[in-house]
Design goal:
With about 425 residues, the protein is of the alpha/beta class. It is built from 13 helices and 15 strands. It has a seven-stranded mixed β-sheet, with helices on both faces. Strand 2 (about 25-30) and strand 3 form a beta hairpin. Helix 11 packs parallel to helix 13 (about 405-420). About 50% of the residues are buried.
């Protein structure tokens, strides 16, 4: 085999030129055996680490029994067991689940559910959001123009409210929260009336938009507004869920529960699966046969999802994410004092962002981030950027990462900052 990358469509953007042969835990390996610390987790997917034995065994066992069982034709035990596992880690009112293949697919399904449940057409999203690359999801994505440029016209009925990105505004967190809630009220009076608004869809922590953590007052304010107007609150936990923030769901940090939950990425430890969760009362308003999919609820993916939840809960990975996240944040805050261009360090658990900007003007420094990531790659640490301007380094290692591995990555990162003359 020639392993010719030119056979792949050039539409794919690559952050490295690495050809990877296999992975284990926090490491990936080239065919020649060169080892890299993978602090991308396949973009926050392999939360249990690469090839976790429990997940691998579940996949192998189910694949030997049956690979495809179409859920409209017959029900199967893996989907039922995954539903039961999700029931154990979701809020009490969330007792009904729909399974699809990807985050974007689940977002589209959640919008369809919200529209049927409310008989209203419009959706509110928030600045900096990333909800996916399919048509409806693209219309809801505002983190970068590259995800939607050239694909207009996109589905209508989507309205954008500000997100309390207080560092970018140059305000304190509560000032930004109050401003954004006032602007949301203005939007409901000027662009989409409450009686025609089906749902607000929000990432409790912005992902692609910059790993921005909002004040609790903002999400609590959204909950109050939604309750006042019978608008459904949809939480997109595709990137922030499944233990990444040191709790199973990011919304648990804020004392707010959604009406509809969307998750994917870390749910299957690498197998394509996503889930929409809600109450039976809401799900029963979704008209029968108005949504579905050939591969949704795939039994092998469902088996991987059940094993993933078990591993996360029973093997202490969520507590480890909280502990290693605190270690990472503390150390990055110390590093920040030595490098003025590292303007902000933020995050929860192992969802941490480092924003680089000019110390005086706060102009985004995307070129610095590119240089730092490249210097880390030379030292066999794989990191990614995020943010509208590409000026945020995001840290998302597997939740099995050790104290020593975090320390090694921090040492490499500080060396890279010095090399890049930050």
């Amino acid at each position: 085999m020639k392993n010719d990358p030119s056979l792949l469509s050039p539409v794919l953007y690559h952050i490295t030129d690495l050809l990877i042969d296999h992975g284990s835990g926090v490491y990936v390996y080239t065919p020649g055996g060169q080892r890299y610390l993978d602090f991308t987790s396949g973009i926050a997917v392999t939360n249990t680490g690469h090839c976790h034995p429990r997940v691998v065994q579940a996949i192998q066992d189910q694949a030997a029994k049956m690979i495809h069982m179409q859920i409209n034709v017959y029900t199967h035990a893996p989907a039922l067991r995954l539903s039961e596992a999700l029931r154990e880690v979701t809020p009490d009112h969330m007792d009904t689940f729909f399974f699809a293949n990807s985050g974007a697919e689940a977002i589209e399904g959640a919008v369809k559910l919200a529209r049927h449940a409310t008989d209203r057409p419009n959706i509110i999203v928030f600045q900096g959001s990333f909800h996916g690359r399919t048509g409806q999801a693209m219309s809801m994505t505002t983190s970068k123009t590259v995800y939607r440029a050239g694909y207009q016209p996109l589905p209508s009925g989507v309205f954008v409210a500000p997100f309390p990105y207080w560092y970018r505004y140059g305000w304190d967190a509560e000032e930004a929260s109050a401003f954004c809630l006032k602007e949301l009220d203005l939007l409901l009076h000027s662009q989409t009336a409450p009686w025609e608004t089906a749902a607000m869809v929000i990432e409790p922590i912005l992902g692609e938009g910059g790993y921005v953590v909002p004040p609790a007052s903002f999400l609590r304010g959204l909950r109050r507004v939604c309750d006042e107007h019978d608008i459904l609150l949809v939480m997109d936990e595709i990137q922030s869920g499944c233990g990444r923030t040191g709790r199973f769901w990011a919304f648990e940090h804020f004392g707010v529960e959604p009406d509809i939950l969307v998750t994917s990425k870390g749910l299957g430890s690498g197998l394509p699966i996503s889930a929409i969760g809600s109450s039976r009362a809401i799900m029963e308003k979704w008209r029968v046969a108005s949504h579905g999919g050939t591969f949704g609820s795939n039994p092998v993916a469902c088996a991987a999802g059940e094993a993933t939840i078990q591993a996360l809960v029973q093997e202490g990975m969520i507590d480890n994410a909280a502990e290693r996240g605190a270690q990472l944040m503390d150390s990055l805050s110390e590093i920040q004092h030595r490098f003025p261009a590292l303007g902000d360090v933020r995050g929860l658990g192992l969802m941490v962002g480092c924003e680089f900007s000019d110390p005086q003007s706060r102009r985004p420094l995307a070129d610095v981030v590119s240089g730092v990531i490249a210097a880390c790659m030379e030292r066999q640490l794989i990191l990614m950027n995020c943010g509208t301007y590409g000026n945020v380094v995001r840290w998302m290692p597997p939740l099995v990462v050790s104290e020593a591995q975090i320390q090694e990555a921090l040492h490499i990162f500080e060396e890279a900052l010095g090399e890049a003359s930050v």
